[in-house]
Amino acid sequence: MPKKFFRYLIFFILFVTVSFGFGYFKTFLSLREHHIDINRAENIDNHNVSNIQEIKLNPGAKMIYVTLYSGCGHETRQEKTLDSRFAGFTKQQLEKEMGEWNIESFTPDEVILKKQVSGICDEHYYIGLNDGYVTLFRGLPGIQSEVVERTDILVETLREEDRAMLEKGIIINSREEFLNIREGLTN
Q: Which domain holds residue 106?
């Protein structure tokens, strides 16, 4: 039994030594190749790159306008085809023309422009009271709002709990929700 043990031990030590040597040799070669690649990159940096053309917008490119509303945190996206007067513009030329819009991404076929706006987007509605009638507003109660539609439902005809909720404003997400609530108030 001790002879077999020594054979296995010697075989194991030999295996570990060969594996370690192979790994060390492979790592050494890989580092050397990396060093050669770095030298090539440094040589490229020393060449004159002034002949490289800047990226220009192609006719028919996509313009994506992203607006972030700080009041509600929503983001809207609007896609348009490039205005023909911008065809052939570089990123720097377009930055000068776009004013408040920041260029987030620029390729020959697509530009993403972004801006932040204080206030809320047009996707917010609430139902409240205005001049004695139940009214649909665009906006948020107490912040910004504009009348979208005034119903023919008088405040005096409402139950007390409905009137209390409408005085605070009922925030809704769609026109369909408005129609359902409106129907419920008339029953």
A: 62-117
